[in-house]
Amino acid sequence: MSTDKPEPGSPEFDEWLANKAKKWSKELFSKDMPPELADLEGGLIAGPKKIEDIMPEKTIAEDIAIEKEEKRNLKRVK
């Protein structure tokens, strides 16, 4: 395997990327967890269940409505 990065979109790139990810994953998961992070293992990860819930297209109308409401509450000071 060459260390040069192939052209993205090519089959060689896909193979290169998969091999790089496998190598990185093996390295990452073969190391011991630092003691200061060990107690974080039992925590929760917060976030939306669906990626569509955070897509900007879904919130544009809401954002515009909020900005209009905020502008109505502002007073001009001279």
Structure, described:
With 78 residues, the protein is mainly α. It has one domain. Helix content is 53%, strand content 0%.
How are the elements arranged and paired?
Blueprint (H helix, E strand, L loop, with lengths): L10 H20 L4 H4 L17 H17 L6
Characteristic terms for this protein:
mainly alpha, 78 residues, 53% helix
- Termini Cα gap: 68 Å
- List the helices and strands in order: HHH
Q: State the low-pLDDT regions, or none.
A: none
Shape: extended
Q: Overall pLDDT, averaged?
A: 80
- By helix and strand content, what is the structural category? mainly alpha
Number of strands: 0
Instruction: Estimate percent helicity.
Output: 40-55%
Number of domains: 1
Strand content: under 5%
The largest sheet, given as strand count, sense and whether it forms a barrel, is:
none
Q: What is the rounded Rg?
A: 24 Å
Q: So how many helices? A: 3
Brief write-up:
This protein has 78 residues and is an all-alpha fold.
